[in-house]
Inverse folding.
């Protein structure tokens, strides 16, 4: 019996056990993490009320129970609690030796596909760096000459003609600011990975946003104070949070709400390009109630020079993706009108770095 309980708790796939009344009688830790609900809030509840599956499965499930057969459903959205739905494969199977109890196993598929896309976006961001640096170098120097010449010309002109030279100076300075963003995007400094308190960095970003570009927004903090330190570059992580908060604030032209949500998801693992697996259990979500991403760019939002804003450079989110990927993390986005959610998944800092042991 002890072995069976240990085996159930050790299953890496989110799993639930359902009795003949469709009541959840057991849940493993992976299911709690996936649904973002505790065992206490799951067990004793009706399965169909706690687990949202975007498919008409109740009828086929009843037949599978009656016939003591398995039921497989692929590529359906599954969600629960505060977690947004993920694309999953779901398997229902009868418990041997029991005429009514069924086991449900949920295998997320969207994580793998998004990680692949995220890695691709990171490579695309890096491939644009050479062009970005070339443009910045070739354009900034002539602009300085144009600005200086316009200022000299303005000294001997009438006020009416000075309006034209002022326009030249103003537009040249605007382009210089754009090129400074391009140069920032081309910064290849490797991350200095150290133990970082996620909430300290989030609070710094929130405070900066609240007195600046996000002064019209309401910030709601939903933190899990038990989260351990992550392994990250604190300065780069702050830059990521500021970029995401700025995007969320600019998406809501009038007053809106930005939720900062942190939680632990032990089930999340990603496969690196070298074939090894990495655990990314620390989750940070930045959620706004703005209009959402334009559907035509939603799938490419982390690509360089893709922007949903008028006069946007399309470098902000590409830079965010690059910084997260370079630091060994993962970023994704879910967006519908009224709710855009950026999720960052990060690793835990190794114990030896926290204790100072070799």
């Amino acid at each position: 019996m002890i072995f069976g309980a240990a085996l159930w708790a050790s299953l890496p796939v989110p799993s639930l056990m359902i009795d003949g009344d469709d009541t959840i009688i057991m849940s493993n830790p992976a299911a709690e993490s996936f649904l973002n609900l505790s065992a206490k809030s799951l067990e004793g509840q009706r399965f169909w009320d706690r687990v949202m599956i975007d498919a008409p499965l109740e009828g086929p499930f009843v037949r599978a129970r009656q016939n003591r057969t398995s039921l497989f459903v692929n590529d359906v959205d599954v969600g629960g609690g505060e977690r947004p739905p993920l694309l999953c494969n779901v398997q229902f199977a009868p418990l041997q030796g029991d005429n009514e109890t069924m086991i449900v196993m949920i295998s997320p598929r969207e994580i793998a596909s998004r990680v692949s896309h995220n890695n691709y976006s990171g490579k695309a961001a890096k491939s644009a760096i050479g062009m970005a640096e070339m443009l910045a170098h070739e354009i900034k120097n002539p602009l300085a000459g144009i600005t200086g010449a316009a200022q000299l010309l303005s000294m001997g002109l009438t006020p009416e003609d000075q309006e034209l030279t002022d326009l030249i100076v103003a537009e040249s300075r605007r382009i210089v600011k754009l090129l400074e963003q391009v140069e920032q995007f081309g910064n290849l400094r490797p991350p200095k990975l150290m133990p970082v308190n996620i909430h300290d960095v989030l609070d710094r970003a929130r405070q900066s946003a609240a007195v600046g570009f996000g002064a019209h927004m309401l910030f709601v903090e939903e933190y899990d104070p038990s989260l351990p330190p992550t392994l990250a570059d604190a300065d780069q992580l702050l830059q990521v949070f500021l970029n995401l908060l700025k995007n969320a604030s600019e998406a809501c032209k009038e007053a809106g709400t930005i939720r900062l949500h942190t939680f632990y998801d032990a089930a999340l693992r990603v496969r690196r390009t070298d074939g090894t697996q990495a655990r990314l259990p620390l989750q940070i979500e930045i959620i706004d109630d703005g209009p959402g991403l334009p559907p035509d760019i939603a799938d490419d939002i982390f690509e360089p020079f893709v922007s949903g804003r008028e006069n946007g450079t399309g470098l902000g989110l590409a830079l965010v993706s690059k910084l997260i990927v370079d630091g060994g993390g993962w970023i994704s986005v879910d967006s519908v009108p009224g709710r855009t959610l950026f999720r960052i998944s990060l690793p835990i800092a190794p114990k030896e770095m926290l204790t100072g042991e070799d």
Notes: The first strand starts at residue 15 and ends at 18. The longest helix spans residues 159-185. Residues 112-117, 310-314 have pLDDT under 50 and may be disordered. The CA atoms of residues 147 and 169 lie 5 Å apart.
